[in-house]
Write a structure and sequence with these properties.
With 479 residues, this protein is of the alpha+beta class. The protein has three domains: 133 residues, Periplasmic binding protein-like II (D-Maltodextrin-Binding Protein, domain 2), CATH 3.40.190.10; 116 residues, Dipeptide-binding Protein, Domain 1 (Dipeptide-binding Protein, domain 1, Alpha-Beta Complex); 201 residues, Dipeptide-binding Protein, domain 3, CATH 3.10.105. Helix content is 29%, strand content 25%. Strands 1, 8, 9, 10, 11, 12, 13, 14, 15, 16 and 17 form an eleven-stranded mixed sheet that branches. A hairpin with a 5-residue loop joins strand 2 and strand 3. Helix 7 runs antiparallel to helix 9. The longest helix is centred in the N-terminal third of the chain and has 15 residues.
Length: 479
């Protein structure tokens, strides 16, 4: 791996030595993974959700403490099962010039209730009725009280008339956000509403090539998905600047709880003790990364700072496997994407687990195939990252027995009646403790955030969850 990184840096140096910046009207943003679906009712991958956040407006957003705040609408709790929303006057224009009304909000959430294949539909199954009072006001009626209901309302609002006509939002999104969708032919092209600045968001899978394009002036901005060696190399280039921030996106190792071997908790404990998280953080992750105990970080209002990390102890792992009656070496298959950094992390996990008597076979797949396998339970182990999570309802989505796909994201098919009761009762300290003990997944780390930009670009703000809201404020310095 060190030889690979050294070769990457050598290639960059040789090719960049003759680089000439190119002029371009677009601000060009290179990302590791292209979006999959730009319909907010279906999007689940990080790139799609980050772009959708720019294109669409939602009823609410979150403040710095992850508490809900008004976005498109303010609200009033009328009763335990009734919420009234008042659309604000500013920013209520779809990108085709039509107005955003309460009918559009009702149609958006009504369609979610009707869709059977939306991964988000289950989150709104508690809605009994959406009633439009006038163009600016509507009521949501719930079947059961839900203190977190408002926090769920982050789906981008769609035009009602296009929902009815079966419009393809997945490839031709139309919203009312700060960016207008222009085209998607390889790169996604957007126009910022405030000043008509153009943006091109293109997939460049190889991290070395992304860095090379940045140095050559072929792209203007990178964010995330680079090994620390390449980040440090970028820091050495005077024409580039690196922004860094503490991260809150949660990386984990998921188990298939239907697997005959992995359903044994002793085996899961053995795998947990076979990973040296701190060594990986120090050697293979960027600044701002830190060990994780649960999906939500400890500074979140529903965080749990009392979770004791599983220490790296390969000797204990072997003992636990012996107790479980497992003959060594234990052979397991780990699925990940073809992203170079994800493959690198998988290789490190493979080497660490070997010391614990676990032989890890790595299957790296293109993103679409990989994610489809995970959603359909075609795995033993896999690695993924929860991105931009703001509410503790993620624990219901990821671990409740009724949240298996397509009704949620309990991809490991974990079922525990005791945990279900804790989640239903919104006892988040107990729920996160139970999850940590039962190990339906192994918490790994919150990955630090960084962005690299060319000089001449100003006012880009980096967020802990890695969203791309900074594109709303970034500007070019005109010479």
């Amino acid at each position: 791996m060190k030889k690979f990184l050294a070769l990457s840096l050598l290639i960059i140096f040789m090719l960049a030595s003759c680089a000439r910046p190119t002029s371009h009207s677009d601000i060009r943003f290179a990302i590791a993974q292209a979006p999959i679906n730009l319909d907010p009712r279906y999007a689940t991958d990080a790139s799609s959700e980050r772009i959708n956040r720019l294109i669409y407006r939602q009823l609410i957003d979150f403040d710095e403490a992850s508490k809900p705040k008004p976005d498109l609408a303010e609200w009033q709790k009328i009763g335990p099962t009734q919420y009234r929303f008042f659309l604000k006057q500013e920013g209520r224009v779809f990108h085709d010039g039509s107005s955003v009304s309460a009918e559009d909000v009702a149609a958006t959430y009504g369609s979610l209730l009707a869709l059977k294949d939306s991964p988000h539909a289950a989150e709104f199954a508690n809605i009994r009725q959406v009633k439009v009072l006038d163009a600016n006001t509507l009521d949501f009626y719930l079947k059961q009280p839900d203190e977190d209901f408002v926090s769920r309302l982050i789906v981008g609002i769609l035009p009602a008339r296009l929902i009815v006509s079966g419009y393809d939002f997945s490839h031709r999104p139309l919203g009312s956000g700060s960016f207008k969708f222009l085209s998607w032919n390889g790169a996604v092209r957007l126009e910022r509403i405030s000043d008509h600045q153009l943006f091109s968001i293109e997939e460049v899978k190889d991290p070395t090539v992304r860095v090379l394009k940045l140095i050559r002036g072929e792209v203007d901005l990178l964010q995330g998905d680079l090994p620390p060696e390449l980040v440090n190399y970028i820091k050495s280039k005077p024409e580039l600047a690196v922004l860094e921030n503490k991260g809150s996106n949660f990386s984990y190792l998921g188990f298939n709880m239907q697997d005959e071997i992995l359903k044994n908790m002793l085996v899961r404990q053995a795998v947990a003790h076979a990973i040296d998280r701190q060594a990986i953080i120090e050697k293979a992750l960027v600044a701002g990364s830190r060990q994780a105990g649960a999906i939500l970080p400890p500074e979140h209002w529903a965080g749990n700072a009392n979770l004791i990390a599983y220490d790296y102890n390969p000797k204990l792992s072997r003992e636990l496997l012996a107790q479980a009656g497992v003959k060594l070496p234990l052979k397991l298959v780990y699925k990940t994407s073809t992203d170079a950094q994800r493959v690198r992390l998988a290789t490190i996990l493979q080497a660490q687990m070997r010391e614990a008597g676990i032989e890890l076979e790595i299957h790296s797949l293109d993103w679409g195939t990989f994610f489809d396998d995970i959603k359909h339970g075609k795995f033993q182990l896999y690695g993924l990252t929860w991105v931009g999570i703001k509410t503790p309802e993620i624990y219901r989505l990821a671990f409740h027995s009724q949240s298996t796909p397509p009704n949620g994201a309990n991809r490991g098919r974990y079922a525990d009646a005791e945990l279900d009761q804790m989640i239903d009762g919104r006892d988040w300290p107990a729920a996160t403790t139970r999850i940590h003990q039962q190990l339906p997944y192994i918490p790994l780390w919150y990955e630090g955030q960084f962005a690299a930009i060319r000089h001449g670009l100003l006012n880009y703000e980096l967020k802990p969850d890695g969203n791309w809201d900074g594109l709303a404020t970034i500007s070019k310095h005109e010479n």
